[in-house]
Design brief:
By secondary structure, the protein is α/β, with parallel strands linked by helices. 33% of the residues lie in helices and 18% in strands. The strands form six sheets. It has a seven-stranded mixed beta sheet with strand order 5-4-16-15-14-6-7, with helices on one face. The longest helix has 17 residues. The chain is globular and about 70 Å long.
């Protein structure tokens, strides 16, 4: 067999990727840690009774079951829970090192009030009174709708309490962070006219066609996907990865298809055209003949392989081969959502990928894409609205869509700030949103910010009051599954240790704040504690949830696919790379990439950071990946210090030559550059790539759809 340079690179990089995701690495680390504990100079905690307690990890959307080993009640180790439907004994690097988040140096250890720009430690009574007065003054001034709230997501009783508080204060400005899931839901609603969650039945698929997803970089439910990846190699299922860079996912795939970034929708539509032209699609799936004929004509005329070869950089033969591989599979599935899926993405791409699944006839079918109506099993009592709340809630929402990006852009553009107060829970928009420096300036414009964070992150640093939360190992909470898995699961996390600091459960913080505000606000929260609220609101499922630790609904309610291939309104608008810049001034394209060893809004643990390759971060220096051919044109060598400049910002980084990235494209890892001075392990290390890229609002969803930005590189 001939092994050319490209095959050799794929083999070598694939082997490196395999080491990154295999459990062998973690087993060796575990053996090493046991071995080093026998060194005489290593301090060893006293022996005691060994127990195991189970809870749920909420560090990402996967919500894996974890087992916590304790000695005399002190947590000392975390493992995956065997038999759990999501991770079945597996655990990722971040779940494995979650105990480090308990003792993170950046934890907020007590309520804080900022006075004249300086943080002052406060009692809970003082902090709550200060926050309640500020919110009360805004309401009395007739500006209730100038109060806004941002949470990570809207699932479960804790986000439900924040949404309820926002409403009873008199504001309809409740927002959740923009993610892949929101774009998928928006796309399905635009096509089928119904609201639905999506689930990808990857375990039962025999071919996964991935359009830029970080399938084993943390996309969706990471450990679930690790196990799918291991299983597919056993049963012979195939993975085809389409993206501009040889990521771990691409290296582990059976086929890597390098495509120009941002052309995924064009490729998906070209594949649709080939399937229709050759008659290799499921005729029974077509419900609207007129709409299908219009769609067929469009993809055959406008997205012919010869045309798309020039746009995508993929030759005609490869496009046709991909289409036939998809058609020949018994249970193929196409998936989309860049990287880990923490960003939204553009509707055109998601609609094109959905069209592929429709042609395969796999909607609501084993191994296919499921449209689900998840039942939260909640009963909330009615809300009492006083005159101030009634007046405020009737006013127009500050941003028409549920988009935090749009919300921040509105604040930035407003000469007279329409936002008087902002509540932030479990979200860090000043770090995770694109054009992060502009977002930071927008938050600075808001007169009063209340943070409910466990950590002094970038957004919390700008707050006026911090009402610190227990971290997830210190609290009980219902956690509905967020990852795109075709299961409807609500799990119950349990405290593994008594709170280490003067923090509170975020649910109790909301209840205490409502009580401090008195009147109808307090009356709308009739529970004395969060635990009482949880039990009452979850009454329909509480018996099962409390006894079994989870409610797993075997028969998922499916939303009928009624598209009939009518995508006419979703496929017209091609999304720009990012706002501003032109090819002449900025000849390169910078793309942010995800790394399984790094996290998003919350900084990665010291252990996780230590495992990151020194070609991503070394000391305090970030690296930019450049193809050697591109580097030759720029006369750059490995390790050179350069200035990466975009229309949004610039940063000094070092060069990492990487054959696995397309010429003309450069990449930087997300999850670095945290401005957290309290945490020397992650603070000040590297560059936050979100300070270099800018958002582009999708015309249909209103969410950020940008996938990169024009850039240039020069020597320092």
């Amino acid at each position: 067999m001939k092994v050319d340079r490209r095959s050799f690179l794929g083999l070598g990089l694939g082997a490196a990727a395999g080491v990154a995701v295999t459990p062998a690495t973690w087993k060796l680390m575990d053996d090493s840690s046991i071995w080093t504990q026998n060194w005489p100079w290593t301090p060893v905690p006293p022996d005691g009774e060994v127990t195991f307690d189970e809870t749920i990890c909420s560090l990402c959307s996967g919500h894996c079951g974890i087992s916590v080993r304790k000695i005399d009640g002190r947590p000392v180790k975390i493992e995956g829970t065997k038999g759990h439907p999501i991770n079945d004994g597996g655990v990722c690097l971040h779940g494995l090192s979650a105990l480090q988040y308990l003792h993170d140096p950046s934890r907020v250890k007590s309520p804080m009030i900022k006075i004249d720009g300086t943080w002052k430690k406060a009692t809970w009574e003082e902090a709550l009174a200060h926050a309640a007065k500020a919110l009360g003054d805004i309401r009395k001034a007739g500006k209730a709708n100038a109060i806004a709230c941002i949470t990570e997501n809207d699932r479960g009783t804790v986000p439900g309490l924040f949404k309820r508080l926002t409403t009873v204060l008199g504001s309809n400005n409740y927002y959740t962070m923009d993610t892949m899931g929101k774009t998928w839901s928006s796309t399905i609603e635009a096509i089928n006219g119904v609201k639905a969650d999506v689930g990808f039945d990857l375990k039962n698929s025999d071919l996964i066609l991935s359009f830029g997803t970080g399938f084993i970089e943390g996309w969706g439910s990471p450990v679930y996907n690790f196990q799918v990846n291991a299983q597919r190699k056993t049963i012979g299922a195939k993975l085809i990865q389409v993206e501009a860079r040889l990521s771990n996912t691409a290296a582990a795939a059976d086929t890597w298809v390098p495509a120009k970034p941002g052309t995924e929708a064009d490729l998906a539509l070209a594949l649709c055209g080939v399937l229709i032209t050759t008659g290799r699609y499921d005729k029974k799936a077509i419900q609207n003949d007129a709409a299908f004929k219009a769609f067929a004509k469009m993809v055959q005329d406008q997205y012919a392989p010869a045309k798309m070869a020039r746009i995508t950089g993929i030759d005609v033969a490869t496009i046709q081969k991909l289409a036939m591989a998809f058609a020949d599979a018994k249970k193929p599935i196409a998936i989309a959502g860049k990287g880990k899926g923490d960003a939204a993405g553009n509707t055109r791409e998601f609609a094109a990928v959905y069209a592929l699944n429709c042609l395969a006839g796999n909607i609501n079918a084993p191994g296919g894409l499921w449209l689900m109506e998840k039942d939260p099993g909640e009963v909330w009592p009615s809300i009492e609205m006083d005159a101030m709340a009634t007046k405020g809630i009737t006013q127009t929402k500050l941003v028409g869509t549920d988009s935090v990006d749009n919300f921040m852009a509105m604040v930035t553009a407003s000469a007279k700030n329409p936002v008087e107060a902002l509540l932030v829970y479990n979200a860090n928009p000043c770090y995770t949103l694109k054009n992060a420096k502009a977002v930071t300036e927008a938050v600075k414009k808001i007169p009063f910010v209340i943070s409910f964070s466990s950590y002094m992150d970038e957004t919390t640093q700008l707050a006026n009051v911090v009402l610190p939360s227990h971290m997830f190992l210190e609290r009980r909470e219902d956690l509905p599954l967020l990852g795109p898995v075709p299961l409807d699961i609500t799990a119950l996390s349990q405290p593994m240790i008594a709170p280490l600091f003067d923090t509170r459960h975020p649910g109790d913080s909301v209840l205490s704040l409502a009580t401090a505000m008195e009147g109808s606000v307090a009356a709308s929260f009739p529970w004395e504690t969060y635990d009482a609220c949880l039990e009452a609101v979850k009454a329909p499922v509480w018996e099962t949830l409390s006894e079994n630790g989870a409610v797993v609904k075997e028969s998922v309610t499916l939303v009928k696919n009624t598209s009939g291939m009518d995508f006419s309104s979703l496929l017209n608008d091609a999304v720009a790379i990012a706002a501003g810049g032109d090819e002449a001034s900025y000849p390169l394209v910078l793309i942010p990439v995800d790394n399984i060893r790094l996290t998003g809004g919350i900084a990665a643990s010291p252990f996780a950071v230590k495992t990151v390759s020194d070609t991503v971060i070394k000391g305090a220096d970030s690296f930019v990946e450049i193809n050697p051919d591109t580097a030759d044109q720029l006369r750059l060598s490995q390790g050179d210090e350069v200035l990466v400049t975009t229309p949004v910002g610039s940063a000094t980084v070092k060069v990492n030559l990487f054959d696995g990235i397309m010429p003309g494209v450069v990449a930087m890892a997300q999850g670095l550059g945290h401005a957290m001075a309290e945490n020397p392990y992650v603070g000040g290390k590297g560059v936050n790539v979100n300070e270099l890229v800018g958002p582009v609002m999708d015309a249909i969803s209103g969410l950020d759809a940008a996938w990169g930005i024009r850039a240039k590189i020069s020597r320092v």
